[in-house]
Design brief:
This protein is α/β, with parallel strands linked by helices. It contains eight helices and eight strands; from the N terminus they run E-H-E-H-H-H-E-H-E-H-E-E-E-H-E-H. Strand 5 and strand 6 form a beta hairpin. The protein starts with a strand and ends with a helix. The structure holds BIS(adenosine)-5'-pentaphosphate. BIS(adenosine)-5'-pentaphosphate (AP5) binds next to helix 1, helix 2, helix 3, helix 6 and strand 6.
Length: about 220
């Protein structure tokens, strides 16, 4: 199964992609995680991306397209993928079409998570991430058993730099500017499936799971 998740910051893309990955046994590819990993290692990609990320801007398209091309090539032989964070605009979607054609594959669905700004802002303010395994928590919606410590691996939980209020505002602005063309593109292709993502994670995932089972 080959899936893309789109939606505003805090819509729950990472959370749903993790659940889909576990349930359906397909790799989770996240461009945000790849970039954050490169930043934390001080890799050249991280040095180039860090400023854009901390301002809430998009990292330049050509760089992102090459990263995703590599990821898709590496996932050959796997039973598909769930891609979270890419494409983010029409230019990336068009470049992605070429990658898919080169690989001789196509998308089964583009899952669009629709969330109100109010809910998303609260989610981002309370989000904590494991510095070792990347697991996603929320201080009230999905708290770890021990404050500041990952349940899964014991790693330290941290708050993302781009979850500061001023950056969050800009990330929404960028999303609203860039995503409209992207969503129309996939709607016209007939692969877009929208879900209300304001509900609690378990409820949102049940709806997605039901839909994905209906595809097979
Ligand atoms: P990225 O990491 O992709 O950030 P984003 O798109 O802003 O999305 P988020 O990760 O903030 O939110 P999410 O929808 O994954 O929500 P989550 O599941 O964590 O990208 C970061 C930056 O990298 C970009 O700004 C850009 O600079 C760069 N970048 C990445 N890809 C790029 C690209 N293709 N091109 C250019 N630049 C790129 O959930 C949020 C919180 O809510 C969590 O605490 C979670 O526990 C909680 N939660 C989730 N769902 C629910 C629910 N249903 N109910 C209750 N709580 C929930």
């Amino acid at each position: 199964m080959r899936l893309v998740l789109v939606g505003a910051p805090g819509a729950g893309k990472g959370t749903m992609a993790n659940l889909i990955s576990k349930k359906f046994g397909i790799p989770h590819l996240s461009t945000g995680d790849i970039l954050r990993n490169a930043v934390s290692k001080g890799a050249p990609l991280g040095k180039e991306a860090k400023g854009y990320m901390n301002r809430g801007e998009l990292v330049p398209d050509p760089l992102m397209v090459e990263i995703v091309r590599g990821e898709i090539t590496d996932s050959r032989g796997a039973s598909g993928f769930v891609l979270d964070g890419f494409p983010r605009n029409l230019r990336q979607a068009e470049a992605f079409e070429k990658i898919l054609i080169d690989e001789g594959i196509s998308l089964d669905a583009v899952i669009h998570l629709r969330v109100s700004r109010e809910v998303a802002v609260k989610r981002l303010a309370g989000r904590r991430i494991c510095s070792d395994c990347g697991a996603i928590y929320h201080l009230t919606n999905n708290p770890p058993r021990k404050l500041g410590v990952c349940d899964k691996c014991g790693g330290r939980l941290y708050q993302r730099e781009d979850d500061q209020e001023a950056t969050v505002k800009n990330r929404f602005k960028v999303y609203e500017r860039e995503a409209r063309g992207l969503i129309d593109f996939y709607r016209q292709k007939g692969v877009l499936k929208s879900f209300r993502a304001d509900e609690e994670a378990k409820v949102v995932f049940q709806e997605i799971e039901r839909f994905l089972k209906s595809l097979s």
